[in-house]
């Protein structure tokens, strides 16, 4: 069972008919449970939001244990403010981040009040040194998403007049980002002063995510304003980063934006690299540029080949492909959700279940877990209310409709309420072994964690429109007018042919741009695709005369070779 993977389709490749995933429970019982859980998540959101508005607004984030605030626009990435005016009251980051969640929950009154306050009070003309990546995904992305929701008449979120106030704020912020890209390589500095640009003696070190995960927000800003500078800067940086990849199509974690040299050679799908993969695929869906697909395809195949070990993904040296660190990081839990977008459901389900086992073991997901020793990293025992496991759970339920994922969501909700809910909001966990709390409610708890849990139990919002979600959980509608070209073929059903009109048996699902076919009752053996990278052997019995007759292994994404006795297999060591 295959479906076209191109940007005019719904952003999820829905494989509803997977016989070994889909269960048929009582629909009435299921709907009752979903409504009950939806209301529990709604209560969670408003407990966090109302406490923020009471004790922290208009500052950036809530400190729920002391019922006080922190101005996190300047503290993201351990940043400190410099020479702030005495009347500075913060930039209401949590409010900006909450707007799209308020829209999804159907609270038009609070949504409109938030827009009014931001349009009258928010300014970026401040002497503050901020992290470009975090400010982009949280603030710029939040403003753009809320603007698009506000101008969509089908949402009916605005009762009064809306004159693009959020878009003007986004444009102002985007212009303040541009000096960061003025480097010899075109790769942006990690830090920018909103008023004065790049500071003297600014660090030239940044991460792959930091300079390769800007295209969704800045590309959208260009499409909305007609100013091409934002998309051009982000795209140039992305292409330059891709040119720096190794011969294995792997990228390191940190680099120098001036020299273009890699600093940290360890490559992974986790912290420092994660959203790079995410934005390649989602940029292709949103903008339709074939370059994004070609980069993603190569990067995805390399990740499956060099990182994957059963259901887990370790880190590897970008030059040799050899394993470096055998560890799970909580940010990696986004990966199954990305695999759903590719249609690689079997691989997504396998990894997701392992992440959930770790969640069940500790009650929440520790920041880092050492796979080779089966213990928590001694200095990274915290859980800052991250959303990634909830995010992947939402995507997998959308793709399979397996009610087991609803049970996973229910477990997550119960854990959050049991261990992290306090009278003043929801607190991060400092140590998952003792459940000692930390006085911080990150804005992404409202922007992502609550949002994905709510959408898991009530997907009516995404049923109306085709959306992609940024790495901060902000929805951006997929618009026909934003695509550079329409796909060559389009089928409304699940079954599809390749562009040549016939199924190409010697090609992978990624090269054909179709979802992997893993239905047990596939119509023809040569149509069977177990994963996104799977290429079948030429002969069904796996006999061969040369390597050219062998395909690509579905699990490891490694090339199969012909043995001395004439059978295809993984005979050569990695």
UniProtKB/TrEMBL annotation:
Family listed: Belongs to the glycosyl hydrolase 47 family.
InterPro entries named in the record: EDEM1/2/3 (IPR044674), Glyco_hydro_47 (IPR001382)
Protein name: Seven-hairpin glycosidase
Keywords: Calcium, Endoplasmic reticulum, Glycoprotein, Glycosidase, Hydrolase, Membrane, Metal-binding, Signal, Signal-anchor, Transmembrane, Transmembrane helix
Cofactor(s) needed by this chain: Ca(2+)
Catalytic residue positions: 134 (proton donor), 274, 367 (proton donor), 388
Stored Pfam families: Glyco_hydro_47
Tree of life domain: Eukaryota
GO cellular component: endoplasmic reticulum membrane; endoplasmic reticulum quality control compartment
